[in-house]
Amino acid sequence: MKVRIIKKQDNSISIIHPAIKSRRLDETEDKWLKRVFDKAIATQNFKGLDYIDIDASELPNSREYRNAWELKGDKISLNTAKVEEMDLKKSKN
Amino acid sequence: MTQPIAGGDIWLVGHASDPAQIFWTESTKTIGFKTYTDETGKNFYLSPMDSAVDHNMYLGSLSSCEIVGILSETAYLMGGEGVHLASMWAYGVVNDPNLKFQLSISNAINQIFFGNLASNAALYQVTSGGATSADLGTSSNKWKDLNMSGDLTVDGTVDGQDVAQQSVKGWISFNGTGTISINDSYNVTSITDNGVGDYTITWDTDFANTNYAVVGNCGHTGGVLASLTVESDVLAVGTSRIHTWFTFGNGMASVVSANDWAGVYVMAIGDQ
Hints:
The structure holds two protein chains of two kinds. Chain A is of the alpha+beta class. Chain A has helices spanning 29-43, 80-92; strands spanning 2-7, 13-18, 51-55, 69-72, 75-78. A three-stranded antiparallel β-sheet of chain A has the order 2-1-3, with helices on one face. In chain A, a hairpin with a 2-residue loop joins strand 4 and strand 5. The longest helix of chain A has 15 residues, at 29-43. The N and C termini of chain A lie far apart (37 Å). By secondary structure, chain B is mostly beta strands. In chain B, the strands form five sheets. In chain B, strands 2-1-5-8-11-13-15 form a seven-stranded mixed β-sheet, with no helix packed on it. The radius of gyration of chain B is 28 Å and the shape is elongated. The two termini of chain B are 50 Å apart.
């Protein structure tokens, strides 16, 4: 299943996961994904932002540092400063 | 005009601009119908004379057709390939509760009407390939089987319930941990993962306004408190942004933080 990764202005990312049940009987997969991604972009102020489409299996398995995910090229990488900040916060709790 | 007939199955073929014509095929059964047209010559009415036989109506191109009478066997009102009727009406009394009063249409038709079937009959069926509306009449009996491949629009109520107002218009069940996966959904095109416990649901069919209600909850394990909130200030006709939380500690010492949960459940009700 393809997902679309949106690179936001603060370098954080949003990931659009299509709902398979929304695919219509007469739609090809490409047409369905275009409709789904277009609507999400139009309704969530993602217009004009950079994005890439990848397979969901390429996403990191762990969401422990989800809020430190950033898009570097066509890969998701961790913002080390944010990771350190999150670890510090955890240790205080 | 009254015209008694004896024969087998009856075929009716006609055009809206012409009086209908009657044909019947050879059959071992005897069947009789009173038939007459109205003053316009465009509408055709049938009333079975012999209630002890099957009553099968094959309809050609008529502006409307109506079956009336006391039926003791399953009655069929059928429109086949090439049939385009503005309306089909069926009135009658079915004496045997095991019998069906069946309307079967395999082609486009604008309206289906079933009249007063105030008998003890229990089974009625409508099978339609393209009806745009169906009026189930004033029968005190319940419809047991309504099978339509097209849309069924209910303008009024069903058993006193305003179905359109009460129906859930969209819902989703998803796993927010690991790689997010949608278990099942209705009227949802996508879910956007904005971060830990931060998701936006995009509805397939938009709501008419932002007065719709969104509710949800999270499944959890162990003695922790999971909760879900809706970001009401960004609620839009096409999207709902939600947040899921984890609370630990007690009273003033409790701490709330965003959290991903394995079970997140959201539904929305409102005008569309």
